[in-house]
Design goal:
Layout lengths: L3 E5 L3 H12 L3 E5 L15 E2 L12 H4 L2 H11 L10 E9 L3 H4 L9 E5 L3 E2 L2 H14 L3 E3 L4 E7 L2 E7 L2 E4 L2 E4 L5 H5 L8 E12 L8 E3 L4 E4 L5 E6 L6 H18 L6 E13 L5 E4 L6 E5 L3 H16 L19
Parallel strand pairs: 1-2, 1-11, 2-7, 4-13, 11-18
Antiparallel strand pairs: 3-6, 4-5, 8-9, 9-10, 12-15, 12-16, 13-14, 14-15, 17-18
């Protein structure tokens, strides 16, 4: 009999787990209170990359080091999944260079120092999530959208599935991949998941196609081109409390873009406020819920970057029964006695 897995949350992480588990032969049900990719996944800047040689090493480094290889695997295996492999230009870092002007000819003042990370890229996280869900379904997974999980099914002291208004489904393992909603889902099980919402802004601008060619990071902004010349900019949250204040933040960023790039043809299209799920120590939380057999958690930042590697390793644990060494330091039980 196939391993029965219910995945709660159809953002990019939940979709990754559902795809990899179904592909590995699991009997998978993917459940979301809305549509796949409609939560915080849609608010992601979606820069994907691996640690650099000088970066600090922590318990997530082993997981992060393989993500670009897994992204290329997905690109080859998942129909319709695309990555924009344009590299990342880190302005103000590294050695003196004259190459920034070649990479980004529309910069008004090319940086004297810059690092170009050619292997990095970016994705449309909603399109990727939808492609993963389609691929998961092609391997037999079932999707239940617009279905809010109300409670866990419990039998003999262990989690044995989930239920919602008017129905339920049994499972050998329930994977909670619901981002910032995960703590509330797990609280009735007696587990306090150390995750809080971390707000951030994602801004969209109309601009001439090709104005930004790579993903550009300066001390003042992070910007990349999406489809049709539209620009995406990630910005910190500064306490905006209504649409007028979000628009004002967007207009301030528009002026910054015009000051940085040689054009005045930039128009603000919109600003979204997203609540990223941020573990208390900044490290992913992946593994069995302590003291609750049958429950498994998969919550992390950045979920977009880590999704293919995390999904693959979680599937190997739940379907293949093989503990992943890369996840050893990321278990939810860490720091508890």
């Amino acid at each position: 009999m196939s391993t029965r897995i219910v995945v709660v949350g159809a953002g990019i992480v939940g979709a990754a787990v559902a795809y990899e588990a179904a592909r590995a032969g699991g009997d998978v049900v993917l459940i979301d209170k809305a549509l796949p990719g409609s939560g915080v996944t849609a608010d992601s800047f979606a820069w994907i990359g691996e640690p650099r040689s000088g970066d600090a090493v922590d318990a997530s480094t082993a997981l992060r080091r393989g993500v670009l290889r897994d992204w290329r695997r997905w690109e080859a295996d998942v129909p319709g999944l695309q990555v924009r492999w344009r590299g990342v230009l880190l302005c103000g870092e590294g050695e003196p260079t004259t190459g920034a002007a070649r990479l980004e000819p529309h910069l008004r003042e090319p940086p004297a120092h810059a690092v170009f990370l050619e292997s990095h890229g970016a994705v449309d996280p909603v399109a990727v999530t939808q492609a993963l869900v389609r691929a998961a379904r092609s391997h037999g997974a079932r999707l239940m959208a617009n279905t809010a999980v109300a409670a866990f099914l419990m039998r003999d002291g262990r989690v044995a599935g989930v239920r919602w208004s008017g129905g339920g489904v049994d499972a050998d393992t329930v994977v909670v991949a619901a981002g910032a909603d995960a703590p509330a889902l797990l609280w009735p099980l007696g587990f306090d998941l150390p995750v809080t919402p971390s707000p951030a802004l994602l801004m969209r601008f109309a601009a001439p196609p090709g104005l930004v060619r790579t993903l550009v990071v300066t001390p003042e902004l992070e910007v990349r081109e999406a489809a049709g010349g539209e620009l995406l900019v990630a910005d910190a949250y500064h306490g905006e409390i209504d649409h007028d204040e979000l628009r004002q933040a967007g207009e301030a960023m528009r002026r910054r873009l015009v000051a940085t790039f040689d054009t005045h043809a930039v128009q603000l299209l919109g600003v979204r406020l997203g609540a990223r799920p941020m573990p208390a120590d900044g490290l992913p939380l992946i593994g069995p819920v302590p003291g609750v057999e049958g429950a498994y958690v998969a919550v992390m930042h950045s979920g977009v970057t880590l999704a293919p590697s995390a999904g693959r390793l979680i599937a190997s644990e739940l379907v293949g029964g093989v503990d992943a060494a890369e996840l050893a330091g990321l278990r939810p039980a860490r720091g508890r006695t």
